[in-house]
């Protein structure tokens, strides 16, 4: 039987290796930047979320939108991060996150089987990455917590640096079209003329969810471009970028699980 130390060491090694998978073209990665106690604790927290969230009787148990929203509203109210006046905006954000996570599977050959009584559902992989986004909401108008330490991940920083920026409120920010360009280019080898439009659809859902992380910010309008479109700063972009790599490029077995939340 493995000791607690052995299990923690195995988890650490998994986190160290995920950076090698994050980019399909660049082998060198700043792996140590993600190997922090904070990221390991966050993975354990998502395990707990998965074990406790209400599930519908589909397969080995899957999570419907209502269960996802109810669970995270209750969790963050109990933690004192979510107030009653802020609840509606948070519910809107959670709906966006759920939609983005479900759309990871747009190429899944059994997508129709992921519905329960007409409702889309999430399995463990999609749920945990959605949960990672849920915890990055700007509660009370404060900035996101970056609980996974993605600001120190070289591959995501490279993506951020390569993205075309617009000057919005005196800062360089990323539009939807720029975001899509970065990741369609990055994962070009995994896409073709048939799958590329579905991937772009997923990226649009992911962008919307990441922008709506900031719904509690009083200056949200100042983060829109001159045409009224949302833009992402570094924090929101990196979490959207994490999701971008979790698309099921090859159908049912195509996701990466870059953070080893499932594998």
Biggest sheet strand line-up: 1-3-2
| Strand and helix order | HHEHHEEHHEEHHH
Beta-strand residue fraction: 5-15%
CA-atom Rg in angstroms: 18 Å
General form: globular
Largest sheet: 3 strands, antiparallel
The CA-CA distance between the termini, in Å, is 19 Å
In short:
With 263 residues, this protein is mainly alpha-helical. The chain has helices spanning 4-22, 37-52, 65-78, 87-103, 124-134, 154-162, 176-186, 196-211, 234-244, and strands at 63-64, 115-116, 119-122, 166-168, 171-173.
Explain what you see:
This protein is mainly alpha-helical. It is 47% helix and 5% strand. The chain is built from 9 helices and 5 strands. The chain has helices spanning 4-22, 37-52, 65-78, 87-103, 124-134, 154-162, 176-186, 196-211, 234-244, and strands at residues 63-64, 115-116, 119-122, 166-168, 171-173. A 3-stranded antiparallel β-sheet has the order 1-3-2. A two-stranded antiparallel ribbon has the order 4-5. Strand 2 and strand 3 form a beta hairpin. Helix 2 (37-52) packs across helix 5.
